[in-house]
Every structure is written in structure tokens, then in C-alpha cells.
């Protein structure tokens, strides 16, 4: 992490040479643990979103398939094609 308003300084001596040491007292120490924690939290959040999204998709596909298969008056070529498509998505999601 870098503070943009503060920086390290090195003094110029009276004889026009630089001082041997730089002054790092106003610099903030580097925090190495924080970015790793953030990445792990993002991975955990992505996994949760993944499983919730696929779970909701499976519920919607199950509802749609049960409607298409239960009501016989909905059977026509277009709905048969959609039933097969929904069954394909259902098997793809459940095995993936």
C-alpha cells in the first residue's frame, strides 16, 4: 500500500552530496496478508454464486419439464423440441 501524500526523503548536504541514509519514517509498512485474504474471500463468494445459480436453474428446469410432461394438451412439435432442450440442459447442469 502506498500513501500518495507521503514519501521517503533523502537530504542533500551542504557540500552538494546526498546523505548516506534515506528517511523512511513516514512510509507505511507493506501489508502482505490483506490481498491474499481478499482473494480467498472472492473465491468463496464466486463458489457460492456458482452453486446458488445452478441450483436455481435446476429448480426452474424441473418446474418447466414437469409442466410440459404433465399437461397432455401442451404436446406439439414445438413443445416437444423445447422439452428435449430443457432435458438436455437439466442433464448438462446436473452432471457438470
UniProtKB/TrEMBL annotation:
Sorted UniProt keywords: Membrane, Transmembrane, Transmembrane helix
Topological relation to the membrane, as annotated: Multi-pass membrane protein
GO BP: adenylate cyclase-modulating G protein-coupled receptor signaling pathway
Entries under InterPro entries matching the protein: GPCR_2 (IPR050332), GPCR_2_extracell_dom_sf (IPR036445), GPCR_2_secretin-like (IPR000832)
Main localization category: membrane
Transmembrane segments: 49-71
SUPFAM superfamilies xref list: Hormone receptor domain (SSF111418)
Location relative to the cell: Membrane
One example GO MF annotation: G protein-coupled peptide receptor activity
GO cellular component entries: plasma membrane
Name of this chain's protein: Uncharacterized protein
Lineage: Eukaryota, Metazoa, Ecdysozoa, Arthropoda, Chelicerata
Amino acid at each position: 500500500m502506498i500513501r500518495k501524500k507521503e514519501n521517503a526523503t533523502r537530504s542533500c548536504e551542504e557540500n552538494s552530496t546526498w546523505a548516506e541514509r534515506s528517511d523512511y519514517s513516514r512510509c507505511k509498512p507493506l501489508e502482505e496478508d490483506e490481498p491474499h485474504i481478499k482473494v480467498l474471500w472472492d473465491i468463496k463468494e464466486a463458489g457460492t454464486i456458482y452453486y446458488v445459480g445452478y441450483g436455481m436453474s435446476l429448480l426452474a428446469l424441473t418446474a418447466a419439464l414437469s409442466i410440459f410432461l404433465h399437461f397432455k394438451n401442451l404436446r406439439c412439435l414445438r413443445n416437444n423440441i423445447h422439452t428435449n432442450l430443457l432435458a438436455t440442459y437439466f442433464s448438462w447442469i446436473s452432471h457438470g
